[in-house]
Amino acid sequence: MKSLLLYAAVSIVTLTACGQRVNKQSPVAEVKGSTASGTTIYIRYNQPSVRGRTIGKDLEPLPGKVWRTGADSATAFEINKDVKIEGKALSAGRYALFTIANGDDWTIIFNKDVYKWGTEYNKAEDALRVNVKAGKAKAFVEKFTITVSKAGKVDLLWGDYDVSFKVE
Prior knowledge:
Helix content: 10-25%
Order of helices and strands: HEEEEEEEEEE
Distance between the termini: 63 Å
Largest sheet: 8 strands, antiparallel
Strand content: over 45%
Number of domains: 1
Radius of gyration: 19 Å
Number of strands: 10
Oligomer: single chain
Shape: globular
């Protein structure tokens, strides 16, 4: 009887572990920050790596195309208070974060439909779009990284790009 119970327990653990999908090439990352005004910014995303590919040619973001701003499922952007993003109002809540790269001009998109796969984008669900200029990263960033500063600056770091927007 004991061996039957042990076999059942091991089988359940094995099946559960095998059924979970983990993307080692684009692991999940989370960043959370609080601004001086008490706004909490939380971002959950998957981190793709460049791995010798060229961004904008054989690796997203592709020029003029909507990018999920990470890999796999849509990047989640959450704020606990009403804010201004680059001077434009955005209500407290959870959004999918998308971007469009056009050289040094980038569009940051906050979309209301956050619970979806990253490639499922519906422009009708956009809550806000802002335009920003891309800067050059201080050093090449192999793995896509998002940072949040106390000043409310959100940086999207990828390859040679540093694309930032201000949350106030």
